[in-house]
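A quick aside before the break. I want you to see a complete sequence-to-structure record at least once, exactly as it would be stored in a machine-readable document. Don't worry about memorizing anything.
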Amino acid sequence: MRTRRLVSLLPLLVVAILIGFFIVGLTKDPRELPTVLLDRPVPDFSLPGLPGRDPALTDPAAIQGEVVLVNFFGSWCVACLQEHAMLKRIQAEGLVPLHGIAFKDQPEDTLRWLGRHGDPYDAVGYDTTNRIAIEFGITGAPETFVIDKDGVIRHKHVGPISEEAWTNTLRPLIEDLQKG
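That is the input. The structure line, written in tokens, reads:
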């Protein structure tokens, strides 16, 4: 009798646990994906530049010695276009060098897209095999990394950079890293 009662309560218990996980999940920001690269050196990479577009972001040495933003983007990416005006504003402010890595794209498509929408990048690398995106743990586009003077990843921003993210998170972090 007692066993039957426990068995009849089991589905209710399972549903209660699932509801608990669901409620906790709703409190999380999906853009705040953890990265195992946080506080670690930038993965080693070797990238070609885009044909006819200099300078190129070719290797990690190109981003050491100063705080930089590295933005993964593609001409196929709707959210990248949404973010693009903000990237142009960040570049115009001159607070931090902005480097781009084009991936899942053809070089001519990337060049045409930058020509059409403006080119906010100080340097661009082209990830021909998407291996670098995998090394950085890219889950989609756009994704942006704040990298310190020593080439260490200090922050990962998933999705388009908004005014709020720039003002409240990225800019203060960059300013703090530039002081240190």
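Two observations worth writing down. The domain at 33-179 is CATH 3.40.30.10 (Glutaredoxin). The CA atoms of residues 64 and 108 lie 28 Å apart. We'll return to this after the break.
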